[in-house]
Amino acid sequence: MSNGEISETWDPRHFPSQGPYAILTSLPRGINSKVLLVGPKDSAPPDFSLSYGIPVNFTSIGAAMAAIPLLDPDVNNPVTQWTILVTPGYYPEVIKFKPFVNVVGLVKEAVIIAGQTEDIGPLRSQVYLCSRSLLSNVTLAIRPKSEQGDFVVRGHDVHTYSSGQHVGNIHFLGLSNVDFFCFRHPKDPKPKGGLIKFDGDWSTVIFKDVGGNYEAPERYGIQLFGRFQNADCHFINCFFDALFLNDESGLMAIRNCYEVHLRNSLLRVNYLNGRGTKPITAVKISKRPVSSDEPTHVAIEGSSLYGPGPSVLDIGKNTVCFFRHSWTESKSGPGQFVASRSDGIGNA
Known about the structure:
- The protein is mostly beta strands.
- Strand 10 and strand 11 (164-167) form a beta hairpin.
- Residues 1-12 and 18-24 have low confidence and may be disordered.
- The chain is 2% helix and 44% strand.
């Protein structure tokens, strides 16, 4: 059968060599209105006489997002989903997600999203994730002129619903197959902003096949700050570098939350000039106030932490690190370190 014949009634009795398949009833031809196609602004108008190319509905991700209704993620049915399919191109825009929206790049290396300074909003971010949102298969271009306190991705809902604002109280979201990269001249200054920040009562966040370089010399490139909630947060098959650090900075800082998992991942840190006088950290686990009885724990599973000095893994007071079939060059801190047994059963 040709592709066009799928919508017609097909009787296998007329094609005995193709086997005893069920008779297909007539299928309606139509359009999936929940999938919106985006191309860059320089996309040529559709010309089907050329017999190639993909016609697009919008020339910016923001325009496609604006065409999708705003639904309260805590009220509406999660079965209702929209997909914005982004074709190869360079998109110099800030993405402010709506609930129930998936932004999917056609080819990760060819779909580059680069939020510009004038559109980054009060939190100075390039991508704002909200509840029930997913960004996948794209490259996020770090702004070369980003400053301390800027982050490429923030878990922060910018919208107002009939029930009020959610802000950092978000859930069921994540990144999948996403790279962070700074497109700059080698002689230009390195960006000072971070990669990812979540701050609030967030939960159920998945980062899968995510990687990038944190080039700033200070603070932490990934900051996960909670309200002592079950974060249900998972980094799976991820790779992050922070190789230009000054004293007392690092890559990933986790504070005031539990059930944060770093699984099958690699994190590396190093000093800006190859050496320093104070420790740098790949993973730092802490609690504020340290006297709180609320839990803060992290599980590092099948992962490797590389870096110089005594504090590549820093376990703060009254926190717990479950260290399962993993490796670190060093560890420090008064917190509880719970390693798995060599036979893989229980804890040591």
